[in-house]
Design goal:
The structure is a single chain. The protein is of the alpha/beta class. It is 42% helix and 11% strand. Helix 3 packs across helix 11 (269-282), helix 4 (91-103) runs parallel beside helix 5 and helix 9 runs parallel beside helix 10. The two termini are 24 Å apart.
């Protein structure tokens, strides 16, 4: 993508080209930049890091329980513990789902759920061991910082010790959920019962110190300001400066249906692309910018590859959380379809696990180094 850089942004453009860090003020200014200027700059960074390589994986989502002691206004997935629609998977159900996913070539188990005090730590350890026994080659990406904090308090075990037990059972890395927007003002509105932004960062740091890599999300398009978005990105950038453990930054557009804020309109494609591009420009030390098509649809994949995105998520078998919030993007692409979409966009598809391993080219005629 080539475009003329507006005179108002030439200094920022020069910093991007020379791989210099952008300031908070420059990040805020970028929200006023022309969309194609943003795409051009973000593509320069994306290609400097990854060339034409575009990553994706084949994932079974194990949303093991929707029973939860919290009642966050932004969540349409949870149910109170004794609600008629509350559920918890048995170990037999988990084993069956794993076996089916293994036959379909799953490379990743993505595990998140409600904060259910009726489950024991043994339940989670047995879950991990079961998954590793049935599909040894698949990685286990499990639990948000919110869940880890809850387990630590519930089982009265330090976070460090908890991580060591979970790693021993088969945990490979963590997803980035629960970050929402880290600003206190926003969390008091949308998720007052959740851990603070500072605590979310602290748990992530402990994961990294225990050699457990993580992702980091940002839920945007609700009550946050542009300044709070940039502050969120800078907080992740600072964490990465300290630990180097963040694998990917994952912007998530807010879906209001079924939540306490149904009047909030959905984000536009224009806004989504803007957030992807600015994320790539601000997070100079985070390797990957990841799109989840369950939030924005598969049609956005090819365009987003020219706005800083290098990871287009996964097949997302059995994802329940976004669907509960009314997302209608459930065309559920297969591995072949994701490969086709990436190739048609002129990029090189790489099928990976949760740790960005096994990134050999896929598809017909694909080239490029792992």
């Amino acid at each position: 993508m080539l475009t003329t850089i507006s005179a108002d942004f030439t200094e920022i453009a020069e910093k991007v080209r020379s791989n210099q860090r952008l300031t908070r003020e420059e990040g805020i200014r970028l929200f006023d930049a022309d969309l194609f200027t943003l795409g051009d700059l973000a593509t320069q960074v994306r290609e400097r890091l990854h060339g034409d390589r575009t990553y994706y994986t084949h994932t079974l989502h194990l949303n093991y329980s929707n029973a939860c002691v919290l009642s966050c206004g932004l969540c349409a997935f949870y149910r109170p513990l004794d609600h008629a629609q509350a559920y918890t998977f048995s170990m037999e159900e988990i084993a069956q789902k794993a076996a089916s996913a293994g036959k379909m070539g799953a490379k990743e188990f993505h595990i998140t759920g409600g904060l259910n005090p009726r489950l024991t730590l043994d339940y989670y350890e047995e879950m991990f061991r079961t998954l590793k026994r049935i599909v040894p080659a698949a990685t286990v990406k499990a639990f948000t910082s919110v869940e880890i904090d809850f387990f630590s308090k519930l089982y009265r075990i330090p976070v460090d010790d908890l991580f060591q037990r979970l790693k021993a059972a088969g945990m490979d890395c963590m997803p980035g959920g629960g970050a929402e927007i880290l600003a206190k003002r926003v969390r008091e509105i949308i998720c007052p019962e959740k851990i603070s932004g500072e605590r979310w960062i602290a748990v992530q740091k402990q994961a990294h110190l225990n050699r457990i890599p993580t992702n980091a999300t940002m839920l945007y398009g609700h009550v946050e300001t542009i300044e709070e978005r940039i502050d969120h990105m800078i907080a992740i950038r600072s964490l990465q400066d300290e630990t180097g453990g963040v694998q990917a930054f994952v912007p998530l557009s807010y879906h209001a249906e079924g939540t306490a804020f149904p009047e909030i309109p959905p984000t536009t494609g224009f806004e989504d692309l803007r957030v992807y591009a600015i994320s790539r420009l601000m997070l100079d030390n985070v390797p990957h910018i990841k799109l989840l098509w369950t939030y924005v649809g598969t049609k956005m994949i090819q365009v987003a590859l020219d706005f800083g995105v290098d990871d287009v998520g996964s097949t997302n078998m059995e994802e329940r959380i976004v669907k509960a919030a009314g997302a209608n993007h459930f065309d559920a692409p297969s591995v072949d379809e994701l490969t086709w979409l990436i190739e048609r966009a002129g990029r090189v598809p790489k099928l990976i696990d949760s740790l960005y391993n096994n990134g050999s080219p896929t598809g017909h005629g694909s080239t490029g180094s792992p």
